[in-house]
């Protein structure tokens, strides 16, 4: 079994996994075993499906390691969907997220970590993603970095201005390190604990006119 982008679907390929467009429990758009055709190569992307699992001689001996159990995956879909609904309602009424919603998100995060720790090979998924789609890989990493920076800022803000200042310094340096642009940090002479980081486009992205 192997994963291919929909644009590479060819006549007669066999679908190896259900194609589902909704949350867990939703009836699949296509069932395992369906014979694909080039018509699906055009129709599936229009339905928001970018890739499909197929069964052929090339992928017959490939053992796919799932990073999450079906139970955890279903729980993630359910809890995050409920949290988004709660966030819209809270925003409408000018209130914060209910404690129960925050607690359920924390529980889901723990379940995600627990599943990943049980399957170290799941980290190879990032490498596969990098080969399959460089943009999605880069976007996933950047979203993770920004999420961690926001979480650190929120937690350290409660700890007081000194800790928050130190966190801001670390945040700038971390964001600088994860940036694809050229980046440099300087330390203030009057306050060694504070650093200012700035970025500039990489040399390869600079266009020169002659």
Question: Tell me, what is the CATH class of the domain at 2-55?
Answer: Alpha Beta
User: What is Rg?
Assistant: 23 Å
Please provide the ordered H/E string of secondary-structure elements: EEHEHHHHHEE
How far the N terminus sits from the C terminus, by CA atoms, comes to: 52 Å
The amount of helix comes to 40-55%
Give the oligomer, counting copies of the same chain as homo and different chains as hetero: single chain
Q: Stretches where pLDDT falls below 50 for ≥5 residues?
A: 177-182, 190-195, 199-210
Largest sheet: 3 strands, antiparallel
| Main sheet strand line-up | 1-3-2
Question: Would you report the number of β strands?
Answer: 5
Bin the strand percentage. Answer: 5-15%
CATH hierarchy: architecture of the domain at 2-55: Alpha-Beta Complex
Summing up helix and strand content along with how strands pair, one would put the structural category as mainly alpha
The CATH superfamily name of the domain at 2-55 is Molybdopterin biosynthesis moea protein, domain 2
Count of DSSP-assigned helices: 6
pLDDT averaged over residues: 76
What this model shows, in words?
With 210 residues, the chain is mostly helical. It has a domain at 2-55: Molybdopterin biosynthesis moea protein, domain 2, CATH 3.90.105.10. Helix content is 50%, strand content 11%. The protein has helices at 38-46, 70-93, 99-118, 124-132, 134-159, 161-178, and strands at residues 2-5, 14-15, 51-55, 182-187, 195-200. It has a three-stranded antiparallel sheet with strand order 1-3-2, with no helix packed on it. Helix 2 (70-93) packs antiparallel against helix 3 (99-118), helix 4 packs across helix 5 (134-159) and helix 5 runs antiparallel to helix 6.
């Amino acid at each position: 079994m192997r994963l291919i982008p929909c644009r590479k679907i060819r006549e007669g390929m066999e679908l190896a996994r259900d194609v589902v467009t909704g949350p867990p429990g939703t009836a699949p758009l296509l069932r395992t075993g369906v014979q694909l055709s080039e018509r699906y190569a055009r129709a599936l992307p229009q339905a928001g499906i970018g890739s499909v699992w197929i069964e052929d001689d090339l992928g017959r001996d490939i053992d796919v390691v799932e990073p999450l159990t079906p139970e955890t995956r279903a729980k993630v879909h359910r809890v995050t969907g409920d949290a988004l609904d709660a966030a819209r309602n809270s925003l409408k009424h000018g209130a914060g997220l209910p404690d129960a919603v925050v607690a359920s998100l924390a529980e889901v995060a723990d379940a995600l970590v627990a599943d990943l720790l049980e399957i170290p090979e799941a980290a190879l998924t990032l490498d596969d993603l990098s080969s399959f789609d460089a943009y999605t890989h880069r976007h996933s990493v950047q979203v993770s970095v920004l999420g961690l920076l926001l979480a650190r800022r929120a937690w350290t803000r409660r700890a007081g201005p000194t800790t928050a200042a130190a966190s801001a310094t670390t945040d700038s340096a971390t964001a600088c390190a994860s940036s694809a642009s050229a980046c440099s940090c300087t330390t203030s002479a009057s306050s060694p604990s504070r650093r200012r980081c700035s970025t500039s486009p990489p040399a390869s992205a600079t266009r020169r006119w002659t």
